[in-house]
């Protein structure tokens, strides 16, 4: 990925991107429930990770772990562990990524936060680590969804899944919990829901 | 915001954005610890919310609540409730947004998920709601950070804060918990840390 970014230092990053990019990332992006047969290459999957990994997390813990399910064999392990309403669309999607979180992320702190040698000890108890990993892996899921759209992909995030079953099937070792599954590909308008309402600025925010 | 987006339906959103945009959003974006005196207008704050709100959440719950602290009076309420290492930079930042989550988000489901009249009952217990709200508001924080960068802003997210104190000060009513505080503005290179390492694709991900 690094090699692909011909970065121009004279570019002013303190200006908004174009309206077309805002539309692609936010205002016109939609959760998709049906997928074209256009494939998603391994190169795109790796680019997606290389963008997602840079998003900021608490003390650079980056606890998210990802399983990109692309093969028929992988789908046959995944799909029975999803709610019935999520099965057909996941079978159709070229990629379904299981977003999980490593509760023992503190074991990687010597590598991820090397300037603070005691960082591992900031997370002594499992429940505190689990909650930090849930929170920060969700933040990373937000980066992954934004990055996928930046790469031209559509997304379909789902939490109608058998969390315990997916943990056992895909993360039988260690202490890794499942957060969500996100379908990735190039969406079609089939089964596209009307956009649900959002809270107004005044309902969800204030300026003080 | 809608009016500002002169959306061109002929634009192909299934292609990657430019490398310059990927740099602005991901590869060259950095957590900032010092801020120029360039202000952030209320218009930008509102645009930021109008982009963030569209990010997908579980059953469109969108539980995040935001307090954009911009005034000296607001800063004087916020800053004593932050870790000492976060105080000076938060005083300097033009905006510090408190990202919180409404544990009683289910009371808005009739508005947010109108096609499923029973949706409120999917979240009967407080602890289940709290965890769903933590998870989905973190996802929304990921969208907010991506949207801020898309608008040309820099971010500085922080969890070194007095969560209970901030709840009491800024959300004394209802059942709203604090997730993080994010400084927003136009960063300088002062006190910029060297970029910490990230896990390789093979360490954090696999393709099956």
The CATH topology name of chain A reads NADH Oxidase
Proportion of residues in extended strands of chain A:
15-25%
Oligomeric nature of the chains: homodimer
CATH architecture verdict of chain A: 3-Layer(aba) Sandwich
SSE topology:
Two copies of one chain form a homodimer.
Chain A: H1 19-27, H2 42-52, E1 64-69, H3 72-78, H4 84-92, E2 95-102, H5 109-112, H6 126-150, E3 154-158, H7 163-170, E4 176-185, H8 201-204, E5 205-207
Antiparallel strand pairs in A: 1-2, 2-4, 3-4
Helix pairs in contact in A: 1-6, 2-6
Characteristic key phrases:
homodimer, 208 residues, alpha+beta, NADH Oxidase, 8 helices, disordered N terminus
Structure write-up:
The first copy, chain A, is α+β, with helices and mostly antiparallel strands and 208 residues long. Chain A has a single domain (30-184), classed as NADH Oxidase (3-Layer(aba) Sandwich), CATH 3.40.109. Helix content of chain A is 37%, strand content 15%. Chain A has 8 helices and 5 strands, in the order H-H-E-H-H-E-H-H-E-H-E-H-E. Chain A has a 4-stranded antiparallel β-sheet with strand order 1-2-4-3. In chain A, helix 1 (19-27) packs across helix 6 and helix 2 (42-52) packs across helix 6. The radius of gyration of chain A is 19 Å and the shape is globular. Chain A starts with 18 loop residues before the first helix and ends with a strand. The relative contact order of chain A is 0.21. Mean pLDDT of chain A is 94; it is low at 1-7. Chains A and B meet through helix 1, helix 2, strand 1, helix 3 and helix 6 of A and helix 1, helix 2, strand 1, helix 3 and helix 6 of B. Strand 5 (205-207) of chain A pairs parallel with strand 1 (64-69) of chain B.
């Amino acid at each position: 990925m690094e090699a692909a970014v011909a970065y121009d230092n004279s570019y002013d990053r303190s200006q908004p991107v174009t309206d077309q990019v805002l539309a692609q990332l936010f205002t016109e992006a939609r959760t998709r429930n049906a997928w074209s047969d256009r494939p998603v290459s391994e190169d795109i999957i790796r680019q997606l990770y290389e963008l997602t990994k840079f998003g900021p997390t608490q003390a650079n813990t980056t606890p998210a772990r990802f399983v990109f399910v692309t093969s028929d064999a992988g789908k046959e392990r995944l799909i029975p562990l999803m709610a019935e309403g999520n099965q057909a669309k996941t079978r159709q999607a070229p990629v379904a990524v299981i977003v999980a979180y490593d509760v023992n992320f503190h074991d990687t702190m010597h590598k991820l936060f090397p300037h603070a040698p005691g960082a591992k000890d900031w997370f002594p108890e499992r429940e505190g680590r689990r909650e930090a990993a849930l929170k920060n892996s969700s933040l990373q899921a937000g980066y992954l969804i934004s990055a996928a759209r930046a790469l031209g992909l559509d997304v379909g995030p789902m939490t109608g899944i058998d969390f315990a079953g997916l943990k056992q099937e895909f993360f039988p070792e260690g202490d890794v919990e499942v957060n969500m599954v996100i379908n990735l590909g190039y969406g079609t308008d089939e089964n596209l829901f009307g956009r649900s309402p959002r809270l107004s600025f005044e309902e969800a925010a204030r300026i003080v």
